[in-house]
TrEMBL record:
A single MF term (Gene Ontology): oxidoreductase activity
Keyword Nucleotide-binding belongs to the record: no
Upper classification of the organism: Eukaryota, Metazoa, Ecdysozoa, Arthropoda, Hexapoda
Taxonomy, superkingdom: Eukaryota
SUPFAM superfamilies: NAD(P)-binding Rossmann-fold domains (SSF51735)
Residue span(s) of domain D-isomer specific 2-hydroxyacid dehydrogenase NAD-binding: 117-298
Official protein name in the record: D-isomer specific 2-hydroxyacid dehydrogenase NAD-binding domain-containing protein
Residues forming coiled coils: none
Keyword annotations from UniProtKB, A to Z: NAD, Oxidoreductase
Database matches in Gene3D superfamilies: NAD(P)-binding Rossmann-like Domain
Alphabetized PANTHER family for the sequence: 2-HACID_DH_C DOMAIN-CONTAINING PROTEIN (PTHR43333), D-ISOMER SPECIFIC 2-HYDROXYACID DEHYDROGENASE NAD-BINDING DOMAIN-CONTAINING PROTEIN (PTHR43333:SF1)
Length: 333
């Protein structure tokens, strides 16, 4: 796939529904001409087929995957690529342009903030504190004052890649012990100083047995789908771990997660992603007292962040350097 350009085309097409994304792109790259392409507009196909560089929402890109003859590089605005992959047909010639995901430290830091905030809120039991305030009640009972610190915790990260390592860095700053699940254990010189223990996917039960929190950051791929299904979470029972899912809901069936909570293998779950989204009102997760739910917001594609990431990748593109976060269509990430 091409990752370089001898010269830029007359414009960069912006094919996105993210509010203010074109404005943010123009702010950080005032000398570049950006052409908004509105989904469903009459000139949509005409503008996209002529563009060499495109900034696009992943779902919109997927629908045009085989109809971008001039494209050399497409920068996606999301980290998740399922909506691109569902249009990828291995029987057809592979697209010749490079696709890059929006990820790197932009999402890693944001998702790390979510992790830290969620752990602190859970360990300090802050929700009752807010409720007490409404009743003018000064109450320091239970975990409100007698709680675990992050430095007391061993935290396992399922998917210790770019984002996972950024999360580990924040956790290590607060002196947590961090375990990371990986495809391949890195060589000594490439090991992250923020990961204390690496475990291969085949050693998942060992990680689950030794962690107080298990944080899923894995993408949705053939290899990761259902990795926690069945009774896998029984290995969390020893420490009654808290399960946090900020990766993808496909790692576990909802019924298996509910069972793990009901059996006491998990003491709680903090969930931002789900097997079905939006989470249906009929889901029993809504009413389980040990579950906290957020609507897939742990790592949002903020327009100013997408613009800065595109700017950094554009510098690489124009200087024939490898781009960051290139999507491998065959691997699925």
């Amino acid at each position: 796939m091409a990752t370089t350009a001898s010269k830029m085309s007359s414009y960069v097409a912006v094919y996105s529904t993210i509010v203010n994304i074109t404005k943010c792109l123009k702010t950080v790259l005032p000398n570049i001409q950006f052409q908004e392409v509105s989904p469903g507009s009459g000139d949509e196909d005409n503008l996209l087929t002529k563009a060499e560089i495109i900034v696009a929402d992943n779902d919109l890109l997927g629908m045009h995957l085989y109809n971008l003859p001039a494209a050399k590089w497409v920068q996606g605005t999301w980290a998740g690529v399922e909506t691109v992959l569902q249009h990828y047909d291995v029987s057809k010639p592979k697209p010749t342009f490079t696709i890059t995901r929006f990820s790197n430290y932009f999402l890693g830091c944001m998702m790390g903030e979510y992790v830290i905030a969620s752990i602190v809120n859970h360990e300090r039991n802050l929700m009752p504190v807010y409720e007490n305030q409404q009743c003018s009640l000064w109450n320091r009972d239970g975990k409100i004052s007698n709680h675990r610190s992050i430095s007391d915790l061993t935290i396992g990260i399922l998917g210790a890649g770019t984002i996972g390592t950024d999360i580990a860095k924040l956790l290590k700053t607060l002196r947590a012990r961090v375990w990371g699940l990986v495809h391949t254990v890195p060589k000594d010189e490439k090991r992250s100083p923020y990961v204390d223990e690496y475990r291969l996917n085949s050693d998942l039960p060992d990680l689950l047995q030794n962690c107080d929190y298990v944080i899923n950051v894995l993408p949705s791929t053939v290899d990761t789908a259902g990795v926690l299904n069945g009774d896998m979470l029984k290995h969390c029972a020893k420490r009654q771990a808290v399960f946090m899912n900020i990766g993808r809901g496909t790692v576990i069936k909802e019924e298996d997660l509910v069972a793990a909570l009901n059996k006491g293998w998990l003491s709680a779950a903090i969930l931002d992603v789900f097997e079905t989204e939006p989470l249906p009102p009929s889901s029993s997760l809504w009413t389980m007292p040990q579950v906290k739910i957020t609507p897939h917001v742990s790592g949002c594609s903020r327009p100013q962040d997408v613009a800065m990431f595109f700017k950094e990748n554009l510098v690489r593109f124009q200087s024939s350097q490898p781009l960051e976060c290139v999507l491998d269509l065959d691997k699925g990430y």
